[in-house]
Amino acid sequence: MVRYTRIPSSSLRVTGTDRLDFLMGQMTGHLKNAPTPGRVPALFLNVKGQIEQVAQVYRRDSDLYVHLPEDEAAMLAARFKKYIIFDQVEIEDTSETLVTFHLWGDNPEQEIPGWKAEGPDTQHIQWEEGFTVLVSRIRRSQNVGLDIHLLRSKILDFYEFIKLEEAAWEELHMERILAGIPDAYTDGFMGYLPQECGMEFAVSYQKGCYIGQEIMARVEARGNTRHHLVRLRGEDIPSFTDITLDGKTVGKTGISLGDTCLAVLRKDIDWGTPVTIEEASAAPEALPTLSLV
Hints:
The chain is of the alpha+beta class.
């Protein structure tokens, strides 16, 4: 069954002749390697290599579209403006203009009118005159789904084209956690290194300088982060809570489903070793290997 979920979002539109070089100097993903249109997962780090913000960046003919979690656009725009000196770059907050839905389940591509199954992963589709949507393959659950970006004014038209059942945002999170897919923002793992919380897929080691790049290069060379992303199994596991072992803090939980959650945990703790989260006990296990790019 295929369903859709409205994604709590904010967004920025970046224009100007220097937009590509400017954003390449800010984000971890290799935007210049993306097709047009194309999508690149991105992190924005501090000088210590810790995650400050997460985004999906779309390269298009006339602009760059930065899709962010809800209420995050203003903060990222302020960061961008701090680094714009002589760059020909303009930043527009489009959070009130655009809206995003995610189609997920079994083969959601067949539900999109005009989608070319053998085409690129990101496509502009015109459903009718004056109504164009930006659609991109992305994994937010066990199966690869589709993010659909459109004008907020076209929401009613969207419902006419996509006659599917709506699923709550919380249901999609449940599927994400069961599939072992990290979400640093929603799981509360901001402030960690990407390699510690399962977000290394958003880091390119082949691109030039960006904020935090020196730390990423050092991690790549040494591979010595102290933490990694795991799944915890137990009962009544609390969300966003310190994990302890022998009285010492060894990690932190993300959103919990009660008996399952993703967590950042010290690498020296063996699989199956009981750990404590407040009054709960749980055991870590390895995550399945999924392509998240």
